[in-house]
Design brief:
Elements: H1 2-19, E1 29-32, E2 38-44, H2 52-64, H3 69-79, E3 82-88, H4 93-108, E4 116-120, E5 142-147, E6 157-163, H5 170-180
Parallel strand pairs: 3-4
Antiparallel strand pairs: 1-2, 2-4, 3-5, 5-6
Helix pairs in contact: 2-4, 3-5
């Protein structure tokens, strides 16, 4: 009887250790959605977009897009002072078009990649850890610009967003957001 209790105790301890939570965030998580499509969900890196399931739309659009150089030069020195979050769906045609273009604009403006966060959502606009909560993500992609707050007890302030597709062009919409908000 004691051997059986010991075995059960060891089993439960093993289960608890294997299921314990860690502070490590899972990044670039893939899953098959109800439509049978492989999608990314949760926080992702740009490298994940270059994987075989996503690379054709990502690379084609990124390589073919030619941003307006004059506008890039106008935003180059301003945009680096802001943090950007992008909510996207690897299953979404608007994301397929706008995300690679936006990332190319950031590259040409020498935007610091450490200030960029990418969050993939499912068809219900939900991410893996709920990063979309309280962000009012209705359509995707959604590009949100934040002014960093130096007080750790306060959130960064949102200064603008581009939702689904730009009004004029991504770079011109960015320029207008940056010019509307002054330090």
């Amino acid at each position: 009887m004691k051997l059986k209790q010991l075995f059960i105790l060891l089993f439960i301890l093993t289960l608890l250790v294997s299921c314990r939570t860690t502070d490590k965030i899972i990044v670039n998580k893939k899953l098959i959605d109800p439509e049978g499509e492989t999608i990314l969900i949760g926080q992702i890196t740009r490298e994940a977009l270059k994987q075989s399931e996503f690379n054709s739309w990502y690379s084609d659009e990124y390589n073919s897009y030619i941003p307006d150089r004059n506008v890039i030069n106008k935003i180059k020195n301003k945009i680096k002072h802001y943090r950007i979050e992008i909510y996207l769906g690897t299953w979404c045609s608007d994301t397929h078009e706008q995300l690679p273009r936006f990332l190319k604009i950031l590259d040409e403006a020498n935007y610091p990649q450490r200030k960029l966060k990418l969050y993939a959502v499912n068809r219900k606009k939900e991410s893996f850890y709920g990063e979309q909560n309280q962000k009012n993500i209705i359509k995707i992609p959604t590009f949100i610009l934040y002014k960093a707050n130096n007080n750790p007890k306060r959130r960064d302030m949102e200064i603008g967003r581009i939702i689904e597709s730009p009004n004029e062009s991504l770079e011109l919409d960015l320029y207008k957001i940056l010019n509307f908000y002054r330090k």
